[in-house]
């Protein structure tokens, strides 16, 4: 019987691989066609050809793009005003081998090519060649109103939603949902909730926050943010949505704006990476860290970290369905943009149709989070945070282990097909004091959505635990 099951499982894996190979080969061809179509559409709608990451084009601009050392990090200075840390940009944005190349085991080219030049008094001795799409975004961001050569991207773009919720008037701060004591009194500490990829603050405000007790609320303010590019927060077309940009927007919108002192962090999925980075910046202020389904993939020696994480998150398989969705989102820039146009640009229509279809019986907060983003935000966040975390997250985990004394608690669904339970145990291997709790029968979303009351009670116990 066991032998039959093993043979059946092997046959299923072989069938999955064979079908996946055909499907993704067809998607590779479709991606090439969409690339041409969107170049024409962008030119017609915006009057300019917009470079994309599926091409191998690069730009070298001596005197305009120079490298300098700052605190041990290499900084690109562009147009004397815009700075970019090289390690903030993942090479997976523009280095995604085709299925045939991947099968052949071809290696990935480096993120940035460098060539040595004679030293000049006004520039560094190293000149960089950077992908043209990155250069275009930075030039647009730095361009002045009268700069016709490098016009900034219009925001919103023609392919984005133009409603007020997707384009807030305050473009300098995130949307923040705040709940404080009913009597308006002072609080002892605060709690920051950070959502995951293509989600919003509603992931927390519609699930866990309503079940937080009056006693816990009496001593704490509860903050739930819409991350940069998602929900009701700004979605700038000239952002690369790097870890640095996300963290700085949280600082500006929550910690500085509300004068947050001591605080706890609760984060789901992609938000776990931001939570760790934030905790490292405020080691004395963080009282506890709670991670739900953290996306941590230790990179084996000899592997290129970003490419390894890309393959782990998006294995280019048609089954399970969530892996297929992740693979399409990670590997296909233009196909992902098509999905965003169909769903996100017309999110109000889809939300109305869903409400009517369900006779207004089902709340749509998950749909709100899933639909309210732009492709440029989701594409860059996915690559620069998830894939680009390779290497960085190890340093954050080591800092939490060695420099912070707060408690670390991790929850993971036993049926999570997107991020395996091993991700949480890998975090525990880096932070031995971390407590891992695996919930059987729950997946990547239901680990919160279907057990919000229990999770709220468990979080209160964590918050009340003294260091």
TrEMBL record:
InterPro entries referenced in this protein's UniProt entry, alphabetically: AB_hydrolase_1, AB_hydrolase_fold
GO molecular function, a single term: hydrolase activity
Gene3D superfamilies cross-referenced by the UniProt entry: alpha/beta hydrolase (3.40.50.1820)
Gene Ontology terms: biological process: cutin biosynthetic process
Biased composition (Low complexity): 101-112
Residue ranges, annotated region (Disordered): 101-125
Domain AB hydrolase-1: 191-295
UniProt cross-references to PANTHER family, sorted A to Z: HYDROLASE (PTHR43689), LYSOPHOSPHOLIPASE BODYGUARD 3-RELATED (PTHR43689:SF9)
Protein name, as recorded: AB hydrolase-1 domain-containing protein
Organism: Triticum aestivum (Wheat)
């Amino acid at each position: 019987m066991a032998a039959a099951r093993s043979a059946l499982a092997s046959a299923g894996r072989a069938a999955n691989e064979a079908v996946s190979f055909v499907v993704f080969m067809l998607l590779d061809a479709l991606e090439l066609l969409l690339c041409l179509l969107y170049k024409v559409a962008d030119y017609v709608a915006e009057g300019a050809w917009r470079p994309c990451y599926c091409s191998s084009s690069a730009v070298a601009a001596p005197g305009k793009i120079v490298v300098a050392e700052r605190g041990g990090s290499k900084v690109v200075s562009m147009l004397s005003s815009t700075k970019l840390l090289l390690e903030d940009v993942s090479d997976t944005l523009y280095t995604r081998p085709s299925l045939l190349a991947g099968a052949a085991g071809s290696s990935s080219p480096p993120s940035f090519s460098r060539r040595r030049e004679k030293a000049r008094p006004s520039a560094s001795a190293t000149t960089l060649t950077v992908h043209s799409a990155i250069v275009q975004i930075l030039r647009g961001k730095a361009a002045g109103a009268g700069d016709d050569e490098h016009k900034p991207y219009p925001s919103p773009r023609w392919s984005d939603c133009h409603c007020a919720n997707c384009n807030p008037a305050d473009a300098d701060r995130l949307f923040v949902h705040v709940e404080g004591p009913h009597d308006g009194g002072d609080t002892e500490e605060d709690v920051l909730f950070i959502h995951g990829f293509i989600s919003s603050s509603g992931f927390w405000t519609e699930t866990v926050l309503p079940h937080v007790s009056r006693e816990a609320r009496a001593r704490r303010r509860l903050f739930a943010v819409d991350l940069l590019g998602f929900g009701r927060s700004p979605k700038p077309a000239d952002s690369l949505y790097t870890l640095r940009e996300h963290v700085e927007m949280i600082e500006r919108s929550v910690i500085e704006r509300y004068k947050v002192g001591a605080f706890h962090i609760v984060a789901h999925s992609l938000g776990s990476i931001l939570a760790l980075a934030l905790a490292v910046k405020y080691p004395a202020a963080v009282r506890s860290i709670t991670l739900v389904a953290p996306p941590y993939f230790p990179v084996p020696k000899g592997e290129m970290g970003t490419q390894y994480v890309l393959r782990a998150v998006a294995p280019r398989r048609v089954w399970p369905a969530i892996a297929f969705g992740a693979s399409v989102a990670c590997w296909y820039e233009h196909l992902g943009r098509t999905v965003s146009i169909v769903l996100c640009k017309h999110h109000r229509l889809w939300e109305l149709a869903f409400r009517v279809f369900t006779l207004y019986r089902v709340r749509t907060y998950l749909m709100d989070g899933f639909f309210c983003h732009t492709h440029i935000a989701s594409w860059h966040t996915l690559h620069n945070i998830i894939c680009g975390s390779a290497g960085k997250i190890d340093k954050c985990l080591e800092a939490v282990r060695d420099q912070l004394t707060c408690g670390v608690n991790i929850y993971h669904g036993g049926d999570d097909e997107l991020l395996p339970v091993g991700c949480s145990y890998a975090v525990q291997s880096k932070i031995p004091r971390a407590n891992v709790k695996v919930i059987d029968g729950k997946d990547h979303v239901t680990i919160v959505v279907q057990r919000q009351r229990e999770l709220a009670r468990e979080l209160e116990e964590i918050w009340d635990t003294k260091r």
